[in-house]
Design a protein that fits this description.
Elements (H helix, E strand, L loop, with lengths): L4 H9 L8 H9 L4 E4 L7 H10 L3 E5 L3 H13 L4 E4 L5 H12 L5 E4 L1 H4 L2 H8 L3 E6 L14 H4 L2 H6 L5 E5 L4 H10 L6 E4 L7 E7 L3 H12 L4 E5 L3 H13 L4 E4 L5 H13 L4 E4 L12 E6 L6 H8 L9 E7 L1 H12 L5 H19 L4 H8 L12 H4 L4 E3 L1 H13 L6 H8 L5 H5 L16 H13 L3 E4 L5 E4 L3 H5 L6 E3 L26 H18 L9 H10 L4 H4 L7 H18 L1
Parallel strand pairs: 1-6, 1-7, 2-4, 2-5, 3-4, 5-6, 8-13, 9-11, 9-12, 10-11, 12-13
Antiparallel strand pairs: 14-17, 15-16
Helix pairs in contact: 2-3, 15-16, 19-20, 20-22, 24-25, 24-27
Bound molecules: adenosine-5'-diphosphate and zinc ion (ZN).
Zinc ion binds next to helix 17 and helix 18.
């Protein structure tokens, strides 16, 4: 199969235009050059080797460490009419022989291979006998010995260059940092490769972080208002919270499934498969979930507990909206999260230096939570990407938060912590500030303190927000060994003495109803209500087709394609062909049946 990159993009994949660096990368690799591609999740890395594979003679060999992904990619390619297969441990001997025979006969455009298999004598012997179009090394950061995903087999991939010097190689990763990039280039012998680094922004993801009042109720309001029937991932810190939250969501009519390390491998696999293969499933998971899943239509990622760092937050939220259509990253956090995470760091048994790093990472995350300006700008700056304009697609841009002069309140709070001996948590100190008549306070004699009752004019929720923000800013700290008691810090003093003014974020009132009408999305607006029933009918049709073939629905058509279908309602094959994501093969296979569904509806 030959032609120009643009022709292949349209004919095979049904897309009208390349994204970002895709065109340059494809041109470079198709012309025989080596490349190192750094692109965020959902940026469109696959096309960077799939199109060159179709433009060049021979079979393209793709090294991928994740079996589930391999199968997904091959399913999707077969749907588009591309001759693809994989070799991994799930195949029996006969199946392996068939794939090998196809490769030898020149009947494959792409062959996906697990890394441990690639370097086996059998596979190398196979490759010796075929014409190789190129090598693509996916998840290339797995070669980094310092990363979380290190795979020793990746170190052996240098053999490719020695054994097949004529075949161009393209290594791909979403891992941003420069040291990892250098390590990849060095270990894979790609020093001379052209490096393509894309920006890390995910413009279709809307970030929102809300102060925690009643996490589940807040989350439910968000779900009911914005994501009924959508696929999503909910992260919780503990197994127990995962189980409880999944049960709770199910009781409210959502198709929610738990996923955590305490479950059997079979159950985990079953839940993951359901999530991938069915529409509208919510997975409630500990952080163990997500790696190796590239379901494109995850419409939201919610954190009911804080992640450990901005890196984790970005990686986890990055699982939303790979298909490029609007998605939400929603998080709720409170002082209790800060206490729990600090406790985890302290009790981790790591050495002091490691702990210091983790504390700093946690602080950076808290800074993000308390931010009153554009979240995206801060996130990108954390990864070294400067951006001049606010994004217009995060909570702070959409509804700029109020701030208030909390200098006096902060002084009262710090002073009360000091007077009560730095031995109590935020709840108790608030009671003293508000002058509550309680036996406990009397017992300690704190009703006689000068700070007793000096904060009666401020409601308990606001005090909670003050304490949270003081801790987040390091103006107070939580003693994790002392059961969450509050302590002063070096920086408290300046505030206590009134030497610096302090402006804090004003939290939105707890019971505030979510906006019914959402402002226009930065990328595109969601489907109008008048198209929703047709969209649902098209989704049903897609599900039947997917079930019959044993593939996930999104390899047939993405939601974006169904949305365009519901809006444009094509009645001829010619019109159907212009939908995004409809190439030659899919037009031939599915055009008629979806047009029928559209006609039945109208
Ligand atoms: P990555 O591997 O970088 O996470 P993928 O290669 O899976 O991303 O691509 C993400 C999604 O974007 C896929 O669903 C893909 O079909 C879609 N996509 C990629 N390139 C384009 C393009 N040029 N136009 C439209 N959609 C695209
Ligand atoms: Zn913003």
């Amino acid at each position: 199969m030959h032609g120009t990159p643009q022709e292949v993009l349209e004919r095979v994949f049904g897309y009208g235009a390349f994204r970002g660096d895709q065109e340059a990368i494809i041109g470079h690799v198709a012309g025989g050059g080596d490349a190192l591609v750094v692109m965020p999740t959902g940026g469109g890395k696959s096309l960077c080797y799939q199109i060159p594979a179709l433009l060049r003679d021979g079979v393209a060999v793709v090294i991928s460490p994740l079996i589930a992904l391999m199968q997904d990619q091959v399913d999707a390619l077969l749907q588009a009419g591309v001759r693809a297969a994989y070799l991994n441990s799930t195949l029996d001997f006969d199946a392996v022989r068939r794939v090998e025979a196809d490769a030898r006969a020149g009947a494959l455009d792409l062959l996906y291979v697990a890394p441990e298999r690639l370097t086996s004598e059998r596979t190398l012997a196979l490759l010796d006998g075929v014409r190789i179009a190129l090598f693509a090394i996916d998840e290339a950061h797995c070669v980094s010995q310092w990363g979380h995903d290190f795979r020793p087999e990746y170190l052996q991939l240098s053999v490719l260059h020695e054994r097949y010097p004529a075949a161009p190689r393209v290594a791909l990763t979403a891992t941003a940092d420069a040291p990892t990039r250098r390590e990849i280039a060095e270990r894979l012998g790609l020093d001379a490769a052209r490096v393509f680094v894309s920006g890390f922004d995910r413009p279709n993801i809307r970030y929102a972080i809300v102060p925690k009042h009643n996490a589940r109720q807040q989350f439910l309001r968000f779900l009911d208002a914005e994501h009924r029937g959508h696929a999503g991932i909910v992260y919780c810190l503990s197994r127990r919270r995962v189980e409880e939250t999944a049960d709770w969501l199910r009781a409210r009519g959502y198709h929610a499934l738990p996923y955590h390390a305490g479950m059997s491998t079979d159950d985990r696999k079953r839940h993951q498969d359901t999530f991938v293969r069915e529409d509208g499933v919510i997975i409630v998971a500990t952080i163990a979930f997500g790696m190796g899943i590239d379901k494109p239509d995850v419409r939201f990622v919610a954190h009911l507990d804080l992640p450990k760092s901005i890196e984790s937050y970005y990686q986890e939220t990055g699982r939303a909206g790979r298909d490029g259509t609007p998605a939400d990253a929603w998080m709720t956090y409170g002082l209790s999260d800060v206490v729990t995470l600090r406790q985890m760091v302290e009790g981790s048994g790591a050495d002091e230096q490691r702990k210091r790093i983790e504390v700093r990472k946690l602080d950076a995350l808290l800074g993000l939570c308390e931010l009153t300006t554009c979240r995206r700008r801060t996130l990108l700056a954390y990864f070294g990407e400067e951006r001049a304009e606010p994004c217009g697609n995060c909570d702070n841009c959409i509804t700029p938060p109020d701030t208030w002069d909390a200098t006096e309140a902060a002084r009262k709070a710090l002073s009360c912590v000091y007077r009560t001996g730095q031995r109590f948590g935020a709840g108790y100190v608030t009671d003293v500030l508000r002058g509550r008549d309680s036996e406990r306070i009397r017992g300690f004699g704190h009703h006689r303190l000068s700070t007793f009752g000096i904060g009666a004019d401020i409601d308990p929720n606001t005090w909670r927000s003050v304490f949270r923000q003081l801790v987040a800013r390091g103006l107070m700290r939580v003693d994790v060994e002392g059961f969450g008691s509050l302590k002063l810090t070096e920086t408290s003093r300046a505030v206590l003495r009134g030497e610096c003014a302090l402006h804090l974020r004003r939290d939105a009132p707890a019971g505030r109803k979510p906006r019914r009408e959402r402002p226009a999305r930065a990328v595109r607006t969601a489907l109008g209500p008048e198209h929703q029933t047709l969209f649902d009918a098209l989704r049903d049709r897609r599900r039947e087709l997917a079930r019959a073939q044993g593939v996930p629905p999104y390899v047939i058509f993405h939601d974006a394609t169904l949305e365009a279908m519901a809006e444009q309602r094509p009645r001829t094959l010619e019109a159907f062909a212009t939908l995004p994501g409809v190439g030659e093969k899919k037009l031939e296979r599915y055009g008629t049946t979806f047009i029928e569904a559209i006609e039945a509806h109208t």
